[in-house]
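Subgroup meeting minutes
Present: P.N., E.W., G.H.
Scribe: E.W.

1. P.N. recapped why we're keeping a running log of single-chain structure predictions: easier to compare across weeks, and new members can see raw inputs and outputs side by side.
2. G.H. added today's entry (86 aa).
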Amino acid sequence: MIGKVIGAFVGDRIAKQTKGVGGATGAALGVVATTLLRRMSLPAMIALGAGGYVAKKMMDKNTGDTADTASPATTTTAPKANKIAA
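Output recorded in log:
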């Protein structure tokens, strides 16, 4: 019972940050997610997490939202050394 209430609360919070999902829908998804996670085996949970990680990386790669690329505004150049005339 407490797990369902916590799942509904978390689902509602996630729904507020996600487009296209309302508060009640998010709460229902949170309850369903906690029920599914409780019945899933550990290897299935690991596979689901790894699959989500790979899917996120592929979506970021396709949209160009990678953290590896630096914008020109954030790149710095080393100052040139001044030559001293002797």
